[in-house]
Amino acid sequence: MVDVFSAFETVAKRRGDHTAIVYLGTKYSYNKLKDMSEAFASSLLDIGVKPGERVILYIPHGIQWVVAWLGVQKIGGVCVPITPIYTNYDLKHIANDCGAETVVCADTNFGYVIKAIPECDLKRVVFTMMADVLPWWKRWFGFVFDVLPKGTVAFNRDTYSFRQLVSKSASPDKLPGPRQNGRSIIEILYTGGTTKSPKGVPFCGDLFLTQIYDVMRVFEPLFPPETNVIVNGVPLFHILGQNIGLAALFVGATVILHPRVNLDIIFRSIQEFRAKTSVGVPALYRMMLEHDRLGQYDLSSVECWLSAGDVLPVEVGKRWREYFGTSITQAYGATETCGGVCICPLGKENPPQSVGKVLSTKKVQLVEASSLKPVEVGEPGELLVSSDYMVESYLNKPEETKQSFVEWDGEKWYRTGDIMSMDKDGHLYFVDRTVDMIKHKGYRIASSEIESLLQEHPAVMGSCVVGVEDLKVGERIKAFVVLKEDVKGITAYELIKWCRERLASYKIPQYIEFRDTLPKSKVGKLLRREIRIEEVRRHTAPPG
């Protein structure tokens, strides 16, 4: 199989002046995107980045994100995309874990980079502003009317402007040729772990390309994939955003990107550019239904409303069908499987609550979680997933690798930790989770990460964090805290502030409850399940 950049380059030559990306209303053709990516790649080599190096992408999704990702691929580097709302604590951990020496950041999180640098090996900082590569009049408009976020940047010899790097002419003679080994790592995505820190999932080029082509084929019953116009409501640092939004660039489609969620802008983009596909997590579709101005836009061009990242609530699906006369298509995947495992077939009626049928490049098995013995058709079991070129280990995490990647029936399989059932026709249904993960707004959050941070507070003796069911966001985060005996006057506000200074915003507890003790097993293991059961009873008990 060809390397990733060569695959994109082939499409760019074929599609040429066709629009690849629409960002903040500006169109960028395939030719333009290729030229910018090669210029950025050439500049990376000029500033000392070497083939094989890890480069952190710490920016919102937009044209700059795509240019940087493709540019790193062109020089044979390894992309490490992370959410731009991570704090310096997360950035420092990831930089040390993956060994990155270069970071591409936004001006708005440049301060976090500066704080992290003394405690990691980052040597080069490339910064970008939201309007960096927009036409001059849009940058002027944003500056004059103060509608663009601004951050402070301190220049030194190891700080570079993204805009200047992409404005230089590429040096073709300097750029390396195609990668010869499709099993080389091209990207490391970080996902929530059962330990206190995120874990890196390395993808090779063959896995990435096999996966995205498989996903793009699911649209063929509706329209040729290259005619697709996709509003990508999921960030590109998320595997779902890559499986659809980034993948579209490898079949010649058009992707509409926004740096943050704004429903009016999303609706206007669908209407103006006649989008055929919308991608989002369940919380986004609920927000759409509850938006006051939903009826003011013509959204009739959309042929596929795709939801993944969490289970779509039955009530949201029902309301959507009543309003639009069509269903939201559900899909399921995981970072460790390079995204999509199954998707509901398009152009067909699917059973209610089905999360789809298995994609052609994946194999699945449902087993008893304790014995790994197969279960009968229709019975719930833990979902195991296998594929060609699959991920077989986490980066620098042998214990979690041993727990999550197993030999079964002579092959390597990933244990998803999700309990599923499958009917006789091959439709999968989500039942429950076996691991202590919280699903909030489509993010997977490890309870232990928040517990560990709370227990670093000098007043806290113990903590337990669980997800509390919430119709709007899936689950809200609730922390139960035991304070040290000699501590008085500590409030929930102070502990939330402690978390806010150290965690990404989506990981911060919404509720904190103080307790004298927490339930534990005879060997001292925290029993989160008992707390969860207690919370369910509390919220389902009849009044009075």
Characterize the structure shown:
It is a single chain. The protein is an alpha/beta fold and 544 residues long. It has a domain at 440-540: ANL, C-terminal domain (GMP Synthetase, Chain A, domain 3, 2-Layer Sandwich). Helices cover 30% and strands 27% of the residues. It is built from 16 helices and 26 strands. The strands form five sheets. Strands 1, 2, 10, 11, 12, 13, 14, 15, 16, 17, 18, 19, 20 and 21 form a 14-stranded mixed sheet that branches. Strand 20 and strand 21 form a beta hairpin. Helix 1 runs antiparallel to helix 2 (30-46), helix 2 (30-46) crosses helix 3 and helix 11 crosses helix 12. The longest helix is centred in the first third of the chain and has 17 residues, at 30-46. The chain is globular, with a radius of gyration of 23 Å. The chain starts with a helix and ends with a helix. The mean pLDDT is 90.
Summarize this structure as a short list of keywords or feature phrases.
GMP Synthetase, Chain A, domain 3, 14-stranded mixed β-sheet, 544 residues, 26 strands, five-stranded parallel β-sheet, alpha/beta, 16 helices
